[in-house]
Amino acid sequence: MKIDGTPYRSVWVDQDGWAVRIIDQTKLPWSLDMLRLTTLEEAAHAIRAMQVRGAPLIGAVAAYGLCLAARRDTATEALEGAAATLAQTRPTAVNLRWALERMLTRLRNTVRGERVRVAYDEAGRIAEEDVEQSRAIGRHGAALIEEAAQRTGRRVNVLTHCNAGWLATVDWGTALAPVYTAFERGIDLHVWVDETRPRNQGAALTAWELGRHGVAHTVVSDNAGGHLMQRGQVDLAIVGADRVTRGGDVANKIGTYLKALAAHDNAVPFWVALPSSTLDWSITDGIADIPIEERAASEVTTVTGRAMDGSVATVRVTPKDSPAANPAFDVTPARLVSGLITERGRCAASAEGLHSLFPERA
Ligand code: MRU
Question: Best of 22, 52, 53, 61 to mutate for ligand 1, by most ligand atoms within 8 A of CB?
Fold first, then answer.
């Protein structure tokens, strides 16, 4: 997608043909800084510290992390150890495990002398496939926005949570791909952007990428969604996902479940957009079986922003002695999800729905 007219991706291989370039998302929206990753350790740090984040992008960067590891040592045990290091960086998004397993399978079946070349080839495929899947999600989801425009005869208001835009994928996004596609088709639309405390991915990242691409949007506090829905100011909600079970339960950024409850109470369609790499076919019950990442309390007790003197500052917002807890994701049961938008089309959030799009998994 575009930053002020210039196309960008969220991860790419450097001009030297081997180092991995990323946008440092911890610096947005204050500055657009690119980082150059040259080692497995730097790739693992980038994922753990959320310099890159968003389920599909984590998977792509982990795949490139294995390329960097292979440059140092192509032995199978070394590659498996590197994959274990990368897998431990973040627990909830299943795309990480998916990408690493795919890379390891390909590398185990490759002679050692070819492993570096094949690793870059496979990581490149993972990245390109993610772009194509996001583009397809955009097409399948844009139809929902077009239908809302025809039904209401006015500007369509879409609510989204966290950042599931191009910054969370290699390009286009998941939840925001339908928004960008509808925007490019000339549909009059506006996005309500949940700020998404504690890390503010909505306020910092979604607002930034929508603004840079020219899409109308308004940032709202996380608590505003129910109120907006009661007043008919949300035509549909579209969120991303970090892991979806074979039964259609959805793990996504903390607060997603509350938005789904409010949407259900107000008969607002609540859609979840995801590539198939986010599906975890090994589990059915999301609440029991999806590991929920617990992050540092400091993400809750502080906020970072631009101070009046222009510097970027982190300030404490809670009393010094108050403990804080920071579960980073929650699970929305399938019964609260109107449907799933995948690269193969839309389906019900259920085993039957998913099997209709992915019969090879039935
Ligand atoms: O903790 P994050 O910022 O990696 O969480 C990201 C989200 O929850 C996204 O909404 C999700 O990964 C969907 S991404 C396309």
Answer: 53
Q: Which atom of ligand 1 sits closest to the CA of residue 253? A: 8
Judge if 235 and 160 occupy the same domain.
yes
Are residues 164 and 99 part of one domain? no
Asked whether 8 and 14 are in contact (CB, 8 A), the reply is no
Note the pTM of the prediction, 2 decimals.
0.97
Q: 92 CB less than 6 Å from ligand 1?
A: no
What's the CA-to-centroid distance between 315 and ligand 1, angstroms? 24
Nearest atom, ligand 1, residue 241 CA: 13
Q: What is the pLDDT of residues 70-87, one digit of tens each?
A: 999 999 999 999 999 999
- Decide if 134 is inside a domain: no
When pLDDT is cut at 50, 70 and 90, the band that residue 218 belongs to is very high
Specify the residue with its C-alpha closest to ligand 1, atom 6. Answer: 54
Range list of H helices, the chain: 40-48, 55-72, 76-87, 94-108, 115-152, 176-184, 201, 207-213, 225-230, 256-265, 286-289, 298-301, 351-357
**Residue 294 resides in a domain:** yes
Tell me the average pLDDT across 105-111.
98
Say what the pLDDT of residue 55 is: 98
